[in-house]
Amino acid sequence: MTEAADPHHDGSPLYVSDASPAPGSVVSVRVRVPRAVGVSAVHVRTTPDGEQFFTAARVVHSDDHEDWWQAEITCHNPVTNYRFLLEGAGGDGYAWLNGTGVHPRDVPDTSDFRITTHPAPPEWAQRAVVYQIFPDRFARDAGVEPDGDPGGPRTDLPDWAVPARWEDPVSLERAANPVQVFGGTLDGVRERLDHLVDLGVDVVYLTPVFPARSNHRYDASTFEAVDPVLGGDAALLRLQEEAHERGLRVMGDITTNHTGDGHEWYAAARQYPEGEQGGWYVRDDERWVTWLGVASLPKLDHSADGLRARLTEGPGSVIERWLGEGGGFDSWRVDVANMTGRYKGVDLTHQVARETRAAVDRATGGQGLLVAEHTHDHSRDVDGDGWHGVMNYSGFTRPVWTWLRAPGFAPKFLGSPLPVPRLGADLVAETMREFSSLVPWRSWSHSMTLVGSHDTTRVRTLVGDDVDQVKVAAGLLLTMPGIPMITYGDEIGIPGDFGEDGRRPMPWDSRGTADGRWDEELVEHYRALVALRHDCPALWGGGMRWLYAEGEAMVYLREHPEQTALVHVARAAHDPVTIDAAQLPGAGAAEHRAGVAEGLEHGEGSLRLSAAGPGVSVWTWPTDAPAWEPVPETYRGGW
Fold first, then answer.
1. Diameter of the chain measured on Cα atoms
2. Which of 110, 188, 459, 487 is deepest in the core (most CB within 10 A)?
3. Residue 176: is its pLDDT beyond 80?
4. Helix axis angle, 305-312 relative to 349-364, nearest 10°?
5. What pLDDT does 151 receive?
6. Residues whose CB is less than 8 angstroms from the CB of residue 536 and which lie 6 or more positions away in sequence, other chains included
7. CA distance 574 to 350
8. What are the angstrom distances between the C-alpha of 444 and each of 77, 129, 150, 433, 543?
9. What is the pLDDT of residue 634?
10. In the chain, domain spans
11. pLDDT tens-digit series, residues 31-56
12. Helix (H, G, I), strand (E, B) or coil at 141
C-alpha cells in the first residue's frame, strides 16, 4: 500500500477545526490534494436527517505540490457523516475520498468520516499511557509475606484458593488455573509505584478487585467491597491516594454483562425467582442464562429497571460509588461490553453504555474515562454517546500480530479456530485503515491500543523470543493513534504461550540478577518511547497518513498543527523506500528522535528510508500548514 501521492483527510485537528462541537455548530473540514491528481473541484457530501447534501469546497492554500481545500458542514445530527467528492480525479474525473482512501466508484456510507457532538472524553486521556495490572500476580506487600519464607504461599487465603509460592509456575490445568492464588495485593501495587513512575505511564488499570471465587475475579460475589485478599477497601484508597500524589490515575474493571454465581444478587434471584432480583438475571424457558455457557457467570438482564438503577443511578450505585477522589477509581474499563444487554431479540447495549457514561460523568465531573472490552468489529457500539472507546483488538492488536508473529509460532486469537496468518505490511495497514474508518476519529483515538493483555499470548512469545521484535511491537504501540496499554511485565520481557500462561507473577527478585527474566535494555526501550510519546504532540494527538506499507516496512506520518512525526517501522532488513520529498514539506528540518538516525537519507528531491534489521525510527519537524480560513458569510448550513 503506497498512498503518499493520494488526497488525504482524517479527523485530527489538522483537518477538522473542532473535534468536539456543540449540536448545530458549523465545523470546517479540509483536504490536501496533490496537484498531480488533477482535481478541479471538491465537494463535501453530508447526510443530514438521512438525505444527502453537497457543499462546495474552496482552495485556501496552494504551493508547487498541493492544494488545500476547505469547506464547512453543519453538525445537524448528533453524528455527522461526510466524505469528499473529487472532480477531475481518476480516469473519468470522478472519485470519492472516505476513511478507506480514494475510490473511482460509488461506495457505501460505512466508511464515511464522522464528527460527533456528544460530550468529549476527558482531555487528559489522549495523552495517557495505561499500565494493566493483574493484582494477584503483580506484587505482594511486606505485610502478607509468610514468616521466615519470603515468597512462600500465603496462609490467610479463603478455602476455595490453592496457595502458590511467588516463584511457582502457573498451573495450566483448566480446573486448577482459576483457583491458583499467588497472593498479590493492592498495597503491593502501591509499594511498586516507583516502577510505573519510572516507566512514565499515567494510568494504573487494575483487573477486577471485588471478592470472587477465582484469581481473576471476573466472577464477583459482590460489588459492595474490595476483596480482603487484596487488602480491602482501605488498601484501594491508599493506592489511589498515593497514585494521585505521583500524578497517576487508577482505572477499575467492572462486569456489566454478568456476575459470579456466588453474588448476593444471584443468591436472592435463585431463592425468589419471581422477586425483584429474580428479574435481574436472564432466563430462557426458566433456564438461567450464563456467559458462553460458563455456569459460574450468570448473565444480567438490563431490561430490569431496578438493575440498571442499582448499577448507574445515584452516588450509591455501583458505577458511581467507586469513582472520584476517595472512591478508589478514576475511570472504568467495562468487561464483555460487546455482550452487555444483548440476548436474542433484546439489544440494550447502547442504553447501558449511555447510562454508564452518564454515571461516570456525574461522579467525576466529566474527568472519567469509560473504555469497553470488544474483541472484534466494534463499529455498532462506538458513536461517542456511550463508551468513549474500546480495547482496540480488531483494529490494532490482531493486525500487529499478523505482521510480527514468529514464522514458527501459530497463536490462536481469543477463541479463533485458526491461528492468525503472517502477512505483509500492505495487508496489515489495509486492515488497520479499514477498521479505523468505521468509527469517529475521536472514538478511535480514545480507544486503548495493545499488543496483548492478560487474556492473550505475551508479545515476547508471539515474536519467537526475539527482543528486537518486541521493541518493534512497542514502537508501533507508542507511535500510532490511540491510548497505549502496556500489560504488566511486557516491558521486562515476560513470556507466555496464551492468556493463563502469560499471567505469571512479576519477578521482582530477578531485577539486577543474571537469570534473564528482567531485561533492563527492554525496559529502557519502553521508557524512552513513553517519554517520546508524551513529548510529541504529533504522537499523542496527531492524525495518521500512510506513506508506504509493503512486506517488511511501514512508513507513516503523524500530523498535528504544531508538529509532524515521520515513523519508519521495519520487522526485518529491507531495500530502501523512496518517498518524494515534495510530499513532506518541512522534512528538511527533521530532527531525529528515536531509532537509527542513518536510516533517513535526503536525496535529490526525495527521502530514502532503509533498515538493516528490525527497528523503529522517528523524526519530527514543525508542521507547515495553512491557517484555518473564517466561515464565509454566505454559508447557509446543511439545508
1. 81
2. 459
3. yes
4. 30
5. 87
6. 558, 563, 565, 593, 618, 620
7. 46
8. 20, 15, 45, 11, 11
9. 87
10. 543-622
11. 999 999 999 999 999 999 999 999 99
12. coil
Give the pLDDT score at 582: 86
User: Which of 536, 565, 523, 553 lies closest to 615, judged by CA?
Assistant: 553
Cα–Cα distance measured from residue 564 to residue 567, given in angstroms and rounded to the nearest whole number: 10
Write out pLDDT tens, residues 612-623.
999 999 999 999
Q: For 543-622, CATH number?
A: 2.60.40.1180
- Main-chain phi, psi angles of 76, to 5 degrees: -70, -35
Burial class (CB in 10 A: 0-12, 13-18, 19+), 270: middle
Q: Rounded to the nearest 5°, which phi and psi values hold at 350?
A: -65, -40
> With the CA atoms of 527, 529, 530 and 536 taken in that order, what torsion angle do they form, in degrees rounded to the nearest 10?
140
Query: pLDDT of 461-478, one tens digit each?
Result: 999 999 999 999 999 999
Would you state the torsion angle of the CA atoms of residues 301, 136, 202, 571, taken in this order, to the nearest 10 degrees? -100
3-state secondary structure of 479: helix
Q: What is the DSSP string of 34-79?
A: EGGG---EEEEEE-GGG--EEEE-EEEEE-SSEEEEEEEEE--SSE
Measured distance CA(605)–CA(580) in Å, rounded: 6
Q: Which amino acid is at 145?
A: E
**Coil, strand or helix at 553:** strand
DSSP secondary structure letter of residue 109: G
Closest to 539 in 3D by CA, of 602, 588, 597, 475 = 475
User: Length of the chain, please?
Assistant: 639
Amino acid at 524: E
H/E segment holding residue 311 = helix 305-312
Q: Phi first, then psi: give them for residue 597, nearest 5 degrees.
A: -60, -35
The pLDDT assigned to 90 comes to: 75
Cα–Cα distances (Å) from 514 to 32, 471, 506, 519, in that order, read: 53, 21, 16, 10
Cell numbers that stand for 569 in this block: 517501522
Can you give the pTM of this predicted structure? 0.97
